[in-house]
Every structure is written in C-alpha cells, then in structure tokens.
Design a protein that fits this description.
single chain, 183 residues, alpha/beta, Nucleotidyltransferase, domain 5, five-stranded mixed β-sheet, 6 helices, globular
Length: 183
C-alpha cells in the first residue's frame, strides 16, 4: 500500500502555516512567510516559489487547504483569495493534486475546542511541543490539526487517533509517541 503523505496549509498572506503528515504521523511543519511591505504581485510570486519548493521536496499524495474566508472583511478576503488561488494552481501544476478545502471549524470540532487558541494548546500538548509559543507557532498548529483531522476523518473515515471524553479531548498519546508519532 502506498504511503499517505499530506501537506496541510493554513493560508495567510503573511505567514502560511504548513504541516507534513505521513500515514497519520506529523513529520514536519513550518511557515511560508512573505514580506507585507512588498507589493502583492511580488508576495504572490514569492509564496508560489516557496510553496512549490515545499511540494516538490515532500511529494505529497494529498493536499488540504483551510477555507478561512468566513467572517473576513472584503479587503482581506480579496488578498486571501489570491493566495489560495496561487496555492491551488501550484498544487495542480507541480504535483498534479487538486487540494481538498476544509472548513476552519472542522479541526476545532474534531479536537473538541471552540477557539483557535485552544486548538493550539491541544496540538502543542498532543505532540509534546513544550517550547512552542502561540504567537509564533499558531499557524503551524492549525495546519497540523487540519492534517491530522483530514487523515483521520476524510481519508480513513474513522476517528482512530482520538478517543472522545465528555470533558473534551483525550488522545492515544502514549501509543502514538511510543510508535514514533512525529516530532
């Protein structure tokens, strides 16, 4: 059976978080930054170049992009739409994948949290990322959560990774870490 390799993108015009999930295990993550002081065409070109390098390096079998356009003002929506368009074109052209678009509330629902900040702390705890801070790493944790959620619910159509409890989330943390769960 072929390995399932997912690139998950939390699209932003300043700092697009990404994660690389292989067979349900987080292997790496990072941020694609563009300079907000540069003009938009340059930023889009720079974003495409960096995303293209990532895609060609990781060779994903699936790409998932967050649909973060709800409740966004029109000016921001126009910019985000252009970055999302570049990401879609880049994925289709370079790795022949049409990305799956996931609603930004889906990972929150999957991990039983209400706010973006809560999701950060769940992922941080899940992967034992003690030195990660919200302000610097929340785009990456969003991408990680989205990648795990996509793998578990969309591809496997199961909830193997999490165990639901009335108070929120509880993960098979010992088993995942013991079997080399990524970081």
């Amino acid at each position: 059976m072929e390995m399932i390799k997912i690139i998950s993108l939390d699209i932003s015009s300043k700092a697009t978080g990404w994660s690389f999930v292989v067979d349900g295990r987080v292997r790496s993550s990072g941020i694609i930054r563009t300079d907000p002081k540069s003009d938009l065409p340059w930023r889009l070109s720079e974003f495409r170049s960096r995303l293209g390098s990532l895609l060609l390096d990781k060779k994903p079998t699936h790409v998932v992009i967050e649909n973060n356009f709800a409740k966004t003002n029109v000016k921001v929506l126009k910019i985000l739409s252009q970055f999302a368009g570049v990401a879609n074109e880049c994925c289709r052209t370079l790795v022949r994948i049409s990305p799956y678009t996931m609603n930004n509330s889906t990972p929150k629902s999957y991990f039983h949290v209400k706010k973006k900040e809560d999701l950060f702390y769940v992922v941080k705890d899940f992967l034992g990322l003690d030195d990660w801070e919200y302000k610097e790493c929340n785009d990456m944790t969003d991408a990680i959560a989205q990648g795990i959620c996509y793998y578990d619910t969309i591809l496997l159509k199961e909830n193997k990774i999490r165990i639901e409890k009335p108070y929120g989330y509880l993960f098979k943390l010992q088993e995942i870490r013991k079997n080399g769960g990524g970081y």
